[in-house]
Amino acid sequence: MEQKTNYLKLITSPLGKENPITVQVLGICSALAVTVQLEPALVMALSVIVVTGFSGLIISAMRNSIPLRVRIVVQLMVVSALVILVDQLLQAFAYQMSKKLSVFVGLIITNCIVMGRFEAFAMMNRPWAAFIDGVGNGFGYGLILIVLGFFRELFGSGTLLGIQVVPQSWYESGYENNGLFILPPMALILAGIIIWIQRSRNRSLIET
Amino acid sequence: MLKNFLNNIKPKFEKGGRFSFLHFTFEAFESFLYVPGKVTSQGAHIRDPLDMKRAMSMVIIALVPCALFGMYNVGYQHFSVKGLLAEQGFWDIFIFGLSKIVPLFVVSYVVGLGIEFAFAEIRKHEVNEGFLVSGFLIPLISPPDIPLWMLALATAFAVIIGKEIFGGTGMNIWNPALLARAFMFFAYPHKMSGDDVWVSDAISGPTPLANASQNVVDLLPEANDLFWGLIPGSVGETSKFCILLGAVVLLWTRVASFRTMFAVIFGGGLLAFILNVCGVTDVTVSQQLLMGGFMFGAVFMATDPVTSANTGTGRWIYGFLTGIIAVVIRVFNPAYPEGMMLSILLMNTFAPLIDYVVVESNIRKRKRRNEIKQRV
């Protein structure tokens, strides 16, 4: 039943027409919470890539020995272990960043993308393919996070990665940072605009 | 002559003409300058014999007193703070205000209509008159010193996110003008309210509302001043007298619903009275109703036929809750001295739900009545 997997497609399709945030509309919560600045968005994206990739690998390797009835419990155990690992690593090597992300690293467990990929892919495919699929979906999620973080930090604080990019002379001539971009609703509006642009370019994605 | 010119250039905009991509832009200008050949056949105002354009024009006429007074008031505040009031004639004051306000109108219309026209061309529909009113309202609810680029950004946000996304005029959930104000309010808070907003070029100070939210009643202007409107505030909302003039026009032409208007004032007044009697706040009912944008919101914003409730009973509920929420936000949340904008936007969200409940309960009532009749 298993046919030759197109690895390239596994990694590219979540970036575009199967994007977890803009098409499947999963993981919105964390996308609102960690994208006020670009740096936490980057770290969060990286953490999610690690978790989705390796959990896919592990679950897929175990897929034939997991009893179907208790599979959710088993899946949760694996994800929890990985998330705790990531969380501890962050606390050990990037304490400030870990404080900034606070509870949202822990909440990767509840991120629907992770469980969604198990059910849709990892339970039925080989470990290597499942790993690529997880990494791809992590990238798709991270891409949106980085785009949101980029615009929100640029317009909300005038900085990128903490470095001021809006020249001081603009402020002196009356430019001001847009407070709305700091607030969570703007992340939702921006995500909506991305969805809008994507669907008007690719009409097959429009739900009826 | 103009008509001839239009007729001459018309073929160029028809299909296959050189400027065919601007066809709808051309049509909009033609019908703006002349009576359109056809009236609205569907849309939000279908239950009125009025065509949408005329309904919109009535609102503009009703707003003119507020706009004119706003211009005078801007000049008045400017010179009174500088202590030069006595030396200035009426026209000096008015023209100073005019020079401040006209750029706001220009920016609001150019940005808003530009976006509307662009969308009309892309989506191949005709340009609606809807923005004429929004574009007039936006400057009136802005502080007079708002930087023009902020106003442009807010207008663009309101038109794109508030209106075009939902399909243009008549489809929007929220009042676009209020959305523009909400954008400015959250994006640039210190420009909008609080202790430090515009009074003149030279000095800024707290508005009456900011004082009221801190419960500093002594600093509030006399009710008289609040009514006639020679107080600092957003451009069009200071004079309650001019707003009442507008209200009379709107009610007389039946463009706005008297139910919504009275329900808002009744709801706000009732809660203000209760809170004042119970000692929660020292702000009296008349001050609460006359301060800030309450009246302006009640007359021009809450009654917007697109975003308000559309059933008779629904309008009473909608208006009543709008008034109550406005006062609640004012009194209990010191961070937001002006509750009117937020309460109208909130009730806009619920308006379809209110209508649904009213319609459904009516259907059920009639069904039951019918059952009883059949049994007898």
Question: Secondary structure elements and their pairing?
Answer:
The complex is a heterodimer of chains A (208) and B (376).
Chain A: H1 7-12, H2 28-33, H3 38-62, H4 71-93, H5 95-101, H6 103-106, H7 112-120, H8 127-157, E1 159-160, E2 163-164, H9 168-172, H10 184-201
Antiparallel strand pairs in A: 1-2
Helix pairs in contact in A: 3-4, 3-7, 3-8, 4-5, 7-8
Chain B: H1 2-13, H2 23-33, H3 52-82, H4 90-123, H5 130-140, H6 148-162, H7 176-187, H8 189-192, E1 197-198, E2 204-205, H9 208-213, H10 223-228, H11 240-252, H12 258-277, H13 285-290, H14 294-301, H15 312-332, H16 340-375
Antiparallel strand pairs in B: 1-2
Helix pairs in contact in B: 3-4, 3-5, 3-11, 4-5, 4-6, 5-7, 6-7, 7-16, 11-14, 12-14, 12-15, 15-16
What's this, in brief?
By secondary structure, chain A is mainly alpha-helical.
Beta-strand segment tally of chain B: 2
- What fraction, in percent, of the residue positions of chain A are helical? 55-70%
Count of helix runs of chain B = 16
The biggest beta sheet of chain A is recorded as: 2 strands, antiparallel
Radius of gyration of chain B from CA coordinates:
22 Å
- Tell me the distance between the termini of chain A: 33 Å
Order of the strands making up the biggest sheet of chain A = 1-2
The end-to-end span of chain B amounts to: 72 Å
Q: Secondary-structure element order of chain A, as H and E?
A: HHHHHHHHEEHH
The rough form of chain A would be described as: globular
* Unreliable spans of chain B: 36-49, 194-206, 213-219
pLDDT averaged over residues of chain B: 72
Binned strand content of chain B: under 5%
Entry keywords:
heterodimer; A: 10 helices; globular; B: 16 helices; 65% helix; 1% strand
Note down, in words, how this protein is organized:
The complex is a heterodimer of chains A (208) and B (376). With 208 residues, chain A is mainly alpha-helical. Chain A has one domain (30-200). Chain A has 10 helices and 2 strands, in the order ααααααααββαα. Chain A has helices spanning 7-12, 28-33, 38-62, 71-93, 95-101, 103-106, 112-120, 127-157, 168-172, 184-201; strands spanning 159-160, 163-164. A two-stranded antiparallel ribbon of chain A has the order 1-2. In chain A, α3 packs antiparallel against α4 and α7 packs antiparallel against α8 (127-157). With 376 residues, chain B is mostly helical. Chain B has one domain (51-375). Helices cover 65% and strands 1% of the residues of chain B. Chain B contains 16 helices and 2 strands. Chain B has helices spanning 2-13, 23-33, 52-82, 90-123, 130-140, 148-162, 176-187, 189-192, 208-213, 223-228, 240-252, 258-277, 285-290, 294-301, 312-332, 340-375, and strands at 197-198, 204-205. A two-stranded antiparallel ribbon of chain B has the order 1-2. Chain B is globular, with a radius of gyration of 22 Å. Chains A and B meet through α10 of A and α6 and α7 of B.
